[in-house]
Specification:
The protein is α+β, with helices and mostly antiparallel strands and 150 residues long. The chain is built from two helices and six strands. Strands 1, 2, 3, 4, 5 and 6 form a six-stranded antiparallel beta sheet that branches. Strand 4 and strand 5 form a beta hairpin. The longest helix has 20 residues. The protein is globular. The two termini are 21 Å apart.
Length: 150
């Protein structure tokens, strides 16, 4: 299993948290939470965070724009157990011209279960488009509390 940086494995590094309750359907035959469920936890946190950052029920706020996932990595760090609750810490790692990267980690208690980065691209019908200044400011307010992440 991969070892994330100590700061990425610390729940206090993330400005936002999404609570998740493990479901029976999320477990494998050994009663561990399976990798597909963990990917779904990251998806739920990603969508919740983007909705909160956009300040709207739409993602993002205008009808002709959308935020697309371009890439996601998941490193599994330790086993998650059922029954139980988990939390997903989430924040911004990087902001580019047309994209931004979400840094996330799943925790059970204070134990890190998995770490993920997801590159999100703002696009319209013509393709990627620059992130507007007002949205960029909202993203900047949600940076991970880690100054040296790539």
């Amino acid at each position: 299993m991969t070892r994330p940086s100590p700061l990425r494995a610390n729940p206090a590094s993330y400005p936002n948290t999404v609570e998740i309750l493990a479901r029976f359907a999320d477990v494998d035959p050994l009663w561990h939470i399976n990798n597909v469920a963990i990917a779904q936890y990251f998806e739920e946190a990603r969508v919740s965070a983007i909705r909160a950052m956009s300040g709207s029920s739409r993602i993002p706020a205008t009808a002709d724009e959308r935020i697309l996932i371009a890439r996601q990595t998941i490193d599994y760090v330790s086993e998650g157990n059922y029954p139980g609750s988990l939390s997903v810490g989430i924040g911004i790692v990087r902001i580019g011209v047309t994209s931004f990267t979400l840094g996330m980690a799943v925790f059970q208690g204070n134990r890190c279960v998995a770490v993920s980065d997801a590159v999100m691209v703002l696009a319209n019908e013509q393709g990627p488009k620059p992130i507007p200044d007002d949205y960029r400011k909202r993203l900047e307010q949600q940076m991970l509390l880690i100054s040296h992440e790539p």
